[in-house]
Specification:
single chain, 185 residues, alpha/beta, 4-stranded parallel beta sheet, 3-stranded parallel beta sheet, 6 helices
Length: 185
């Protein structure tokens, strides 16, 4: 096993080491979507099976899919579809979004916005926040969302970003009287 450090280039380097030096016949793992895409491309070029354990981006199976890559979890679109169906039942008309600024966050927000508008054409998206992955300024993000005055928030943050955001959001009253639809939390 190797640590990809959350970096696509490092992931490809360690995948190559495992294949060349350790003679592995199947690669498995990765957490982040952009890292999974890099390893999937490597697997396709080397014609080696890659079991993507965690990456959720639909690009892994759709536009950048290949016959050597298999994902174990439901993708971004499926998760967004489940949430959009439930979110459409809320009285909220003004929505704001918050997601890490990388492949998974971007694709999750895009899918949710599209699907929610299909269910509820009267919904308006009043703003977005795109903090850097694992580098969130949670106080500033919570304040920016509050200034948008949404009725509800679609959240795609996770891990340490999510815990910091929830802490700051609670402290600043961001969630009072607002629905939150949230992936991975």
């Amino acid at each position: 096993s190797r640590d990809d450090g959350g970096k696509p280039a490092d992931a490809v380097t360690v995948a190559n080491e495992l294949v060349a030096r350790e003679r592995v016949e199947v690669l498995a793992g990765t957490l982040l979507s952009h890292v999974g895409l890099a390893v999937a491309d490597y697997a396709n070029q080397r014609r080696i099976v890659f079991i993507a354990a965690e990456p959720l981006t639909d690009a892994l199976a759709w536009e950048q899919g290949n016959p050597y890559t298999f994902r174990l979890r439901p993708g971004t679109y499926v998760q967004a579809a489940m949430l959009a169906e439930q979110a459409a039942k809320l009285p909220a008309k003004r929505w704001a979004t918050v997601a890490a600024n990388y492949e998974y966050g971007k694709s999750a927000v895009e899918a949710f916005k599209t699907l929610l508008k299909q269910h509820r054409p009267d919904v308006e998206f009043v703003g977005e926040q795109w903090p850097a992955l694992f580098k969130i300024d949670a106080g500033a993000t919570a304040q920016a969302l509050a200034r948008m005055q949404p009725d509800a928030i679609f959240n795609v943050l996770f891990g340490s970003d999510l815990s910091q955001f929830v802490r700051e959001g609670q402290t600043r009253g961001l969630f009072e009287g607002r629905a939150v639809a949230s992936v991975l939390s």
